[in-house]
């Protein structure tokens, strides 16, 4: 390994939680042949949660069986890390899979046992596991036309949704006009273009914070629903001159949502009560984060961020559960970095290597289809994210995409333009954009690893790459993705 820069700050006061033995930083790895099988059926909001899981021996390492009763999967970068696949794999070992924030801007691609591809945006990724109950929490904004379209698509492909999806009565509704306003706002911003998905997420959260939003529970009161919708639409018309609001539009939307309300009623639930009762009964709960921490409204590269908190804190506020209930939080990180839309990207590659990563990794947005910007793995950003979330482990995805490269670089530190070190991930975008990234260069392995299923069978250079990341960020990598399929996962 050719070291071209100094290591990151290793001050124990700033380093994230570690799980290593000895000075060499070798990851502790226990392998117990144990995993869980559940025997319960789907649940309704009024029913008790499913019975506790059984355990039986298998060839699966105990990385899954040892996870806490309430565990989470969160993104470490700017989204698109492959969270859905891990959630899908873990879901069969959990009673409940819950979404806590975001909306249809979170595109998760997963595959069933026959290799069929499903692109989900609102429905939690656990839906492919027939005994898993899926919860859409109070922190999610719900676009009902898109929600029902997903359900219709799933059911037309043999995936049963009846009695298996619970939608919080506190969740806010995202209307079509929110999407229209999203586009108008981007035009208005012009040079400060943020690059949203134009799915209406920001305007819907704005309605929520302005306290004139409409919640799922309001669908049960169609006598007052028209007045609330009129207030929302009138506000949008006063704000954007190109938004045309008419009484006919209001009438049509009210009639449309009367039909939606009837269809949604079996899904509506007090999910705060449901989740807390499930915790008391020691049910296994998996929380699926949307987007990623580098898009967090507070901790991301503001203003080039999403409108919610896709970090560990968002789990509690988006589901109404106490911080002390949280167990293991797994961070999902690509073996390289991608970003969609505008915003700083210190390790971005604007050359043929970036193009190679984009096409080899099929880096085109699940939600928008937009090509993703590609670059080397940013250790500074990853360490920052690990500190914020307190990850117990990481899932390194798409390691196979790097297989064609003769050399691989890790962005290990930032420096100011005058050469002085930057000791933390900067909030000031001017500082971030002007910073110089210091890299370590590591050898590539130049061989296909997509069929490998044991860590010890990986080429030496691939193992060195994995272990160097662990050493730099201080968090063990327990899961390594080497392909898109469910089985293309190495347990370390």
TrEMBL record:
Cofactor note: Binds 1 Mg(2+) ion per subunit.
PROSITE patterns: ADENYLOSUCCIN_SYN_1, ADENYLOSUCCIN_SYN_2
Taxonomy, superkingdom: Eukaryota
GO cellular component: chloroplast
Residue positions binding IMP: 80-83, 105-108, 197, 211, 291, 306, 370
Compartments, as annotated in UniProt: Plastid, Chloroplast
Reaction it catalyzes: IMP + L-aspartate + GTP = N(6)-(1,2-dicarboxyethyl)-AMP + GDP + phosphate + 2 H(+)
A Pfam family assignment: Adenylsucc_synt
EC code: 6.3.4.4
GO terms classed as biological process: 'de novo' AMP biosynthetic process; IMP metabolic process
Binding annotation for substrate: 366-372
Region (Disordered): 40-59
Name of the featured protein: Adenylosuccinate synthetase, chloroplastic
Originating organism: Mikania micrantha (bitter vine)
């Amino acid at each position: 390994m050719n070291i071209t820069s100094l290591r990151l700050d290793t001050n124990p006061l700033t380093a994230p939680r570690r799980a290593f033995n000895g000075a060499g930083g070798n990851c502790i790895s226990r392998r117990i042949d144990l995993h869980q099988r559940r025997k319960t059926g789907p649940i309704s909001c009024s029913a008790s949660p499913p019975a506790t899981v059984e355990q039986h021996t298998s060839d699966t390492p105990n990385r899954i069986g040892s996870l806490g009763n309430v565990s989470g999967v969160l993104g470490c970068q700017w989204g698109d890390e492959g969270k859905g696949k891990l959630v899908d794999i873990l879901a069969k070992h959990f009673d409940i899979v819950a979404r806590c924030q975001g909306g249809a801007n979170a595109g998760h691609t997963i595959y069933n046992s026959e290799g069929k591809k499903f692109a989900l945006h609102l429905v939690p990724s656990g839906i492919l596991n027939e005994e898993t109950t899926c919860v859409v929490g109070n922190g999610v904004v719900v676009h009902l036309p898109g929600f029902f379209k997903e359900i219709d698509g799933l059911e037309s492909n043999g995936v049963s949704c009846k009695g298996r999806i619970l939608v919080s009565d506190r969740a806010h509704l995202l209307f079509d006009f929110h999407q229209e306003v999203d586009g108008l706002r981007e035009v208005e911003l012009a040079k400060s273009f943020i690059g949203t998905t134009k799915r209406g997420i920001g305007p819907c959260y704005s309605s929520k914070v302005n306290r004139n939003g409409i919640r799922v529970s309001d669908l049960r009161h169609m006598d007052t629903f028209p007045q609330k919708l009129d207030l929302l639409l009138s506000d949008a018309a006063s704000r954007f001159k190109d938004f045309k609001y008419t009484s006919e539009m209001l009438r049509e939307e009210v009639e449309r949502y009367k039909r939606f309300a009837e269809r949604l009623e079996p899904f509506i639930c007090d999910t705060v009560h449901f989740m807390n009762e499930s915790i008391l009964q020691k049910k296994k709960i998996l929380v699926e984060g949307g987007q990623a921490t580098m898009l967090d409204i507070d901790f991301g590269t503001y203003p080039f961020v999403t409108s919610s908190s896709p970090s560990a804190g968002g789990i509690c506020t988006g589901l109404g559960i106490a911080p002390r209930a949280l167990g293991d939080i797994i961070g999902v990180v690509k073996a390289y970095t991608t970003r969609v839309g505008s915003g700083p990207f210190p390790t971005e590659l604007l050359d043929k290597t970036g193009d190679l990563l984009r096409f080899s990794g099929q880096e085109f947005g699940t939600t928008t289809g937009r090509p993703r910007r590609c670059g080397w793995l940013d250790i500074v950003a990853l360490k920052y994210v690990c500190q914020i979330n307190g990850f117990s482990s990481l899932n390194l995805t798409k390691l196979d995409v790097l297989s064609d490269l003769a050399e691989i670089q890790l962005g290990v530190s930032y420096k100011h333009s005058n050469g002085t070190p930057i000791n933390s991930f900067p909030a000031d975008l001017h500082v971030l954009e002007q910073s110089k990234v210091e890299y370590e260069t590591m050898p590539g392995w130049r061989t296909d690893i997509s069929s490998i299923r044991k860590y010890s069978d990986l080429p030496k250079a691939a193992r060195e790459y994995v272990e160097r990341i662990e050493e730099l960020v201080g968090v063990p990598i327990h899961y390594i993705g080497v392909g898109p399929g469910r089985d293309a996962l190495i347990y370390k």
